[in-house]
Amino acid sequence: MHLSPLRLSVTPALTRRLACLGLLASALLPAAPAWADTWPTGPLKVIVPHPAAGPADQIARVTANELAKALGQAVVVDNRPGGGSLLGTQAVAQARPDGETLLVNASVHVIYPAVFKQVGFDVIKDFAPVSLLTRVPMVLLVNPQLPVRNVQELIAHARANPGKLAFASSGNAGAAHLAGELFKQTTGVDMVHVPYRGGAPALTDLMSGQVQVMFDSASSSLPHVRAGKLRALAVTSETRLALVPELPTMLEAGVPGYVLTNWYGLWAPRGTPPAVVSRLASEVARTFRAPEVSAQLRATGAEVVASSPEEFARFTLSEKDKWAQIVSRSGAKLD
């Protein structure tokens, strides 16, 4: 039997009924946040849980300056050190997810759970990753009076003098401390850790010979190396640092598996609209890769990354596990 196709006769009355149903359906749909279409509507704040003038502050100010130009809004850097850098981080975790409060922090962000008994927030779940901004390799430094000129000579000297070498750091359980602990773990040497309240006093004692070894950022240590007050042996990145291409990597210097870099990232509070996160990441990528900005960052010893949010999310998970292993083997704790 042949069935004729059903034809619906659209009368004026039916048209009115369909229109009413359409309006009702629209009313039942979740309201789209109109503010997201015009974001940002006011100034942005970048919270840095570290003191002013330090590496994190420098990266944050470059980020704020470039975002201000890209978004057409003021972007203010708010330094909130304290509590082992927990206070400022917690402030962002508790901020409104409106895209107007952001966090720039170092790799210590994913070290928190391994070194603190109580953090007060989840470093993964309570933040929306925006972008891995830069990687900052560290430099292995020694006092020039130490009779070593390369990494293998340092290892041999340390093995011949167990427990007699002291390595400095800018603070307990920070990146520089854990870099020293990884060196001990991968080479089997016995050195004593001496933590300081910041990198400057640690470098001062390294130059005076009160301590003999230190891992530090290139930006703060290389001026002393060039002045002959310190000796640089290697960099901790997988590839050589453009700022000091003559320095070998730890891998090239004969320390298998030794790759460890400090890094800086940009986060928003959890629940920040994905469209806002995506816009922030794209503006960072566009501006950070501009020749004048990338040159400015490279001059500090940083390697520009400017990743996508998805890449940054995967990176933070892997880094959290990596640093946790170093902390567990070393027993480093802050409380």
Low-confidence stretches: 1-34
Task: Briefly note the structural class of the backbone.
Answer: alpha/beta
What percent strand? 15-25%
Distance between the termini: 84 Å
Helix and strand pattern: HHEHEHEHEHEHEHEHEEHHEH
Portion in helices: 40-55%
- Tell me, what's the shape? globular
- Rounded radius of gyration (Å): 26 Å
Average pLDDT, rounded to a whole number, is 89
Main sheet overview: 10 strands, mixed
Tally of DSSP β-strands: 10
Polypeptide structure, described:
The protein is of the alpha/beta class and 335 residues long. Helix content is 42%, strand content 19%. The chain is built from twelve helices and ten strands. Strands 1, 2, 3, 4, 5, 6, 7, 8, 9 and 10 form a ten-stranded mixed sheet that branches. The chain is globular and about 65 Å long. The chain starts with 11 loop residues before the first helix and ends in a 5-residue tail after the last helix.
Topology:
Layout: H1 12-28, H2 34-38, E1 44-48, H3 55-71, E2 75-79, H4 86-93, E3 101-106, H5 108-115, E4 127-142, H6 151-160, E5 165-169, H7 175-187, E6 191-195, H8 199-208, E7 213-217, H9 218-226, E8 231-235, E9 261-269, H10 274-288, H11 291-298, E10 303-304, H12 309-330
